[in-house]
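Re-run requested by the PI after the first attempt was lost when the workstation crashed. Everything re-entered from the original request form. Ligand of interest: NAP.
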Amino acid sequence: MIKIIAAITDDGLFGQSNGILPWKCKEDLNFFYSQIEGKTCILGNSTYKTLPRLVKSLVSELIVIGNSIKVEDWKSYLTYLEEMEDEIVILGGKSIIKQCLPYSDQLILSKIHKRSLKPLLNPLDFIYFPELALASKVLPVNSVLSASENHVTSLYNLRKYYENVRHVVENPVQDR
Ligand SMILES: NC(=O)c1ccc[n+]([C@@H]2O[C@H](COP(=O)([O-])OP(=O)(O)OC[C@H]3O[C@@H](n4cnc5c(N)ncnc54)[C@H](OP(=O)(O)O)[C@@H]3O)[C@@H](O)[C@H]2O)c1
């Protein structure tokens, strides 16, 4: 089972150029920890550089894509990992999720309410991920896994539905 876990605001804000998340949402963070504890996790080189120490200590293994691990064929690579581990969790960032979306089983996506944005942010540093925001709009929600006044985390079944929405998600049109 390959799971992507990520968070985004309703308008597609995903991160910042310094790698620090632009929001503070304790409820979502606690849910995130519960999902990665004891798991084998994949992440990109950039996300690894700003990864909190707690995350490193919670997971059972971190596979950092970049320097020494280059992946050309994600389908084969994820299949290979799945043969060794029951569950692989993909932690980001944007480039890794983009490449893994077509080959993953589940997307666990938190929608973060704008009230959780940190103060004094510079919008010029914002990284948006419209394809992911769009995926969450066109895929049916399988179930809601966690919710508070500051976030809602939904589970999407990618294996079942991604092929139907691939053309929309991978070729996002402005103002959709
Ligand atoms: N909201 C969320 O849930 C969430 C979660 C995590 C991160 N983020 C945000 O995501 C952003 C970072 O995303 P990103 O796309 O810049 O970085 P990233 O996906 O974490 O890492 C990108 C790096 O990974 C390596 N890489 C990617 N694909 C590869 C492949 N197929 N083979 C070998 N190496 C590969 C490259 O490293 P080299 O250049 O070293 O080769 C590339 O520069 C930040 O804004 C962060 O805040 C958000």
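Saved to the shared folder this time. The radius of gyration is 15 Å.
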